[in-house]
Amino acid sequence: MAKTSRRSFIKKNILSGLFLTSTVPLLQADNTIKSERIVPALKPYTRDYKSIDWDNIREQFLFPKEKHYLNTGSLGPSPKVVINTVCETIEKLETSVSHGRHQIDETHEKAAKFLNVTADEIAFTRNATEGINIAARSLRLKKGDEIIITTHEHVGGASPWMALEKDFGAVVKLVDLDFNGVNNLQIIRDNITENTKVIAFSHITCTTGI
After folding, report:
1. pLDDT of 141 higher than 90
2. Second label for 191, Cα 20 to 30 Å away, from 54, 70, 97, 167?
3. Do 17 and 163 meet the contact criterion of CB atoms below 8 Å apart?
4. Is residue 113 domain-shared with residue 153, that is, in the same domain?
């Protein structure tokens, strides 16, 4: 029953592929959201969680202390260091009457170095949904071409492909995953045919976290 409901939801309710946009809070005149504490740098993939100052990290977020926000993979709250940087950058651009293009170019270079690619291979979008829509609409797919996605995709990850099915007849194949994760690669392989042109799925599912 659960599989049928998930398939029905994906097929019927996420064809629109709407872009999500976010808003940025403005820096107040008295600079009240300015953080006086610095978020400690976290070592990637650290297992020594006791060495992390979690209280300090929690202080960087503005939402009430009694709340616990776990949806940071979507539209999550930003820490003060991010809010301050955004607000200070906006203020600097507004007062200098600058387009800030040099900052975008510099960020392209930094991102490219981090990902070991060239700067012209980097494209900034407002969010993942917009990025997937751009990628989906840029492919030269035709009627009958198959697109494999799973029944565990986030709405933003599934709707761009569903829209292609609706607009010109591409075939979206929904694959049910194994909840223990062991057989998922083989499940996807078994669904590949000579008509398969796209395989798109999350490396971590939004439904179970596998």
Report:
1. yes
2. 167
3. yes
4. no
Tell whether 127 is covered by a domain. Answer: no
How confident is the prediction for the chain on average, in pLDDT? 80
Whole-angstrom Cα distance, residue 210 to residue 205? Answer: 6
Q: Which residues contact 200 (CB under 8 A, 6 or more apart)?
A: 132, 147, 148, 149, 153, 157, 161
Place of tokens 């939402």: 63
42-60 mean pLDDT: 71
Strands (E), the chain: 146-150, 171-175, 196-199
pLDDT for 116: 96
Give the domain range for residue 53: 49-121
> Is 210 contained in some domain?
no
pTM value is 0.63
Total number of domains in the chain: 2
Tokens 């998922």 appear where?
A: 184
Neighbouring C-beta atoms of residue 68, cutoff 10 Å:
7
Residues 61, 53, 40, 46: is their CA dihedral positive or negative?
A: negative
